[in-house]
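User: Could you check the structure of this?
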Amino acid sequence: MNNALDGKVALVTGGGRGIGAAVALRLAEEGADVALTFQRNQQRADEMVDQIKTAGRRAVAVRADSAEPAAVVGVVDRVADEWGRLDILVNNAGAFLLGPLEQLSLDEFDETVAVNVRAPFVASQAAVRHMPAGGRIINIGSNIAERAVFPGFSLYAMSKTALIGLTKALGRELGGRAITVNLVNPGPTDTALNPVDGPNAGTITGFTALGHYADPADVAATVAFLASPDGRYITGATINVDGGFTI
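Assistant: Sure, the predicted structure tokens are below.
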């Protein structure tokens, strides 16, 4: 087993399902102890904890609403206090609210910005209080930030585009502390929200150069690389894991 992350502690927000779950498991397989947050599905979160423990690492799942800043800070501080350190933060939790511009409400706007923009900022702010040199912050965005080919994505695309600026600025600010900050933009990925056999999958696949969806493990592999020692000289970067959707 590759132990590139042996002795490291990671926190993955929204780690109970989909891409977040794949990231949490991959980091554990690479040697990290992993905490994850979830909002609703306790059973799925418990299953993830069991899988991580089966990989031989410590694991904990914490129910937390990423729209609540106090909950975000509380999870970061809890992990650092109970496990003695925090080396890797993966800001993965997201709100996916779509609709025509004239039908989107201000409540939906506020929720999207709270989860997709404010939560990564707040979590990063809390995490760097604990992070040693060599720390990693990895934001999970979306290829929609670079290519919105369908109507109804204005709110979601706006929120994910904000992560580009956050990533670049934090990469510059934290570079002197040897903490890297990067953004991974997944493209079409086979998850419960966007299954490979869904009604629009054929159209979506047609926009990719490779002609197929990603598996969540493909995104997790990129996150694991950025979290590893091999990723130490990459910061402020946006990496598209989208099968060529944006080219």
